[in-house]
Structures are given as structure tokens and as C-alpha cells.
């Protein structure tokens, strides 16, 4: 199985268009490496058919940056399916970008799918032909076999997307994905609000854990937002009860994704960056690829 990180940044990307924080300024000045698109990954069992997790507003650029995802014929795509971990704009808006009458297979829980489709007049652009989008419903913790791999969606603590703030809270609004092929497995968890026994169980049954690296500190958005990391449903890495301690004790390979533009780990000269590496945790970049 091949897994490739298409985008490693949190919502807004890096740099974020309206952000003048030290990191974003540093990136624009060429001091902090290449820019980063919004979080998603692609995986394939055979190297020919690919599934994407998260369909970010950057999907078009992500496909163009990834030759394995290019069409192989006049009208074609190697993308066999798209998995949605939650209904945030960051994970769904890209579907509207893929509107060029290509049949799409979308895998999502009912809560996520209805949140995107219902009352969304823009969705009609994906209904120009009867088979344009096929939704495959995922149920919490029920494994499905798809195309040579086993997929399980597992609800983890998160939050409702801002445009669904009046909806009924439903655990299936935010899920982790565990993808298993034979004896090897990885998990994709870009949004983890807090530690839980479920989370620990997932981490112990996979070979690779792609984990929420949004914030390093609880107060990282001071002066930029009224909310703290945990109030935004992201367990920060550092601090006394930070996720880095949890991650440092896991036996699997651990890779941070969904990194916010304010996060000091983006600066390779920072203490935060050094602490992450010292804990044995990797920091993904766009195009980061591994085989398992
Ligand atoms: Zn910034």
C-alpha cells in the first residue's frame, strides 16, 4: 500500500491568505520552505487505482502535483473513491471543484453527507447526470471491504462544521479512518479534540498514524482568534497534557498532518520542531509518501 500526503496544512493552508503571523511572513520571504495545501491524502493498493481522504479546496492543484492522479485517457481519472472525514469546508469543498461530469464515488457517514448535500444548491452542479456522484454510506465502526482493502470509519471527538452549527450533534460528524490491506494498516486523524480510549485503541492497531498536528500550544491563536486550540477541537501537541506525550509512547510510525500556519513546528530552528523530532514523531509535507 502506498500513502501520499497531498496536503499537510490545516484549513487556510500555509501561508494563509489573510495572515501576517511570523510563520506566514517567513514563508513568503522564502525562509520556511515550500507552501502547504490543505490536509488530504491519497492511497493505493496497486499503484493504479487511488482513493483520496478529504477533498480540500486545493484538490485541483493537489492532483496536478501528483502524476499518479493524472488521467490516463481522453476523459479519465485514476481516483476510484473519495472519503470524507468530516463535513468541514476544508474536507468537502473540493468536490465542487471536480464537477466536470466525471463519475465520483464518495464514502461518508450519513451525518457528513447530508450536511454537505441538504439545502446546498451548489451541489446541483454535481447532479448534471444521474450517475455523476454515488454516495456510499459508512456506518460508525462497521468495516467495509472496498477494492482490496478494508475501511473502517470510527467516530472521534470533534465539532460540527460552522455552517451546520444548528444541526443535531451526531458523533458521526467527525470520524477517523482506518485503512487495512492484509496485515498492514494506517489511520488518518486530522481532527482530534481530546484523548480517548478509542484513540489509543486505533493507535495501537495500525502501522502508521497520521495525526492532528494543528496547534503546538493551547493559546497559539492569541490575538488572532477568540478561541483556544481545544475550543477549536484540536488537542495541542505541547503543554502538560499535550498530545506529544501520548504520541511519543506509541509503537507505530507517527506523522503530523493538518498543521496550522501559526504552529511553531513549521520553523525548523524552533524548540517546538526539535521537541517533535526528539519524540520520534515526523512532520509531513505536501508530497510526503510512504509504503507499508
Ligand atoms: Zn499565519
Task: Draw up the topology in text.
Layout: E1 2-7, H1 22-28, E2 40-44, E3 50-53, H2 59-64, E4 79-83, H3 89-97, E5 104-109, H4 110-117, E6 133-138, E7 144-146, E8 149-155, E9 175-181, E10 184-189, H5 197-204, E11 208-212, H6 243-248, E12 253-257, H7 271-278, E13 282-283, E14 289-291
The structure holds zinc ion.
Overview features:
292 residues; seven-stranded mixed sheet; binds zinc ion; 14 strands; 7 helices; alpha/beta; globular; single chain
Structure, explained:
The chain has 292 residues and is of the alpha/beta class. Helix content is 18%, strand content 24%. It has helices at 22-28, 59-64, 89-97, 110-117, 197-204, 243-248, 271-278; strands at 2-7, 40-44, 50-53, 79-83, 104-109, 133-138, 144-146, 149-155, 175-181, 184-189, 208-212, 253-257, 282-283, 289-291. The strands form two sheets. It has a seven-stranded mixed sheet with strand order 6-5-4-3-2-1-14. Strands 7-8-9-10-11-12-13 form a seven-stranded mixed sheet, covered by helices on one side. Strand 4, helix 3 (89-97) and strand 5 form a beta-alpha-beta unit. The model has no long low-confidence stretch (mean pLDDT 95). The site of zinc ion has 8 residues, from helix 1.
Amino acid at each position: 500500500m502506498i500513502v501520499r500526503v497531498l496536503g499537510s496544512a490545516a484549513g487556510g493552508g500555509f501561508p494563509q491568505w489573510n495572515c501576517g503571523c511570523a510563520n506566514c511572513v517567513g514563508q513568503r520571504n522564502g525562509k520556511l520552505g515550500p507552501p502547504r495545501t490543505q490536509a488530504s491524502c491519497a492511497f493505493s493498493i496497486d499503484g493504479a487505482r487511488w482513493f483520496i481522504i478529504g477533498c480540500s479546496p486545493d484538490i485541483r492543484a493537489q492532483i496536478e502535483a501528483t502524476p499518479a492522479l493524472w488521467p490516463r485517457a481522453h476523459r479519465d481519472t485514476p481516483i476510484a473513491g473519495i472519503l470524507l472525514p468530516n463535513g468541514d469546508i476544508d474536507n468537502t469543498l473540493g468536490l465542487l471543484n471536480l464537477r466536470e461530469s466525471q463519475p465520483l464515488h464518495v464514502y461518508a457517514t450519513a451525518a457528513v453527507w447530508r450536511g454537505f448535500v441538504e439545502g446546498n444548491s451548489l451541489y446541483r452542479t454535481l447532479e448534471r447526470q444521474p450517475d455523476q456522484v454515488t454516495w456510499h454510506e459508512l456506518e460508525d465502526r462497521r468495516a467495509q471491504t472496498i477494492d482490496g482493502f478494508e475501511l473502517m470509519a470510527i467516530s472521534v471527538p470533534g465539532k460540527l462544521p460552522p455552517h451546520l452549527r444548528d444541526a443535531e450533534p451526531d458523533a458521526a460528524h467527525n470520524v477517523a479512518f482506518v485503512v487495512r490491506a492484509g496485515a498492514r494498516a494506517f489511520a488518518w486523524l486530522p481532527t482530534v479534540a481530546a484523548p480517548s480510549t478509542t484513540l489509543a485503541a486505533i493507535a495501537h492497531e495500525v502501522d502508521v498514524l497520521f495525526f492532528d498536528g494543528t496547534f503546538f500550544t493551547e493559546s497559539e491563536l492569541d490575538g488572532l482568534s477568540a478561541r483556544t486550540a481545544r475550543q477549536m477541537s484540536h488537542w495541542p501537541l505541547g503543554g502538560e497534557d499535550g498530545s506529544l506525550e501520548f504520541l511519543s509512547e506509541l509503537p507505530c510510525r507517527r506523522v503530523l498532518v493538518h498543521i496550522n500556519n501559526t504552529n511553531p513546528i513549521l520553523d525548523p530552528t524552533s524548540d517546538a520542531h526539535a521537541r517533535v523530532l526528539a519524540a520520534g514523531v515526523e512532520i509531513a509535507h505536501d508530497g510526503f509518501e510512504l509504503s507499508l
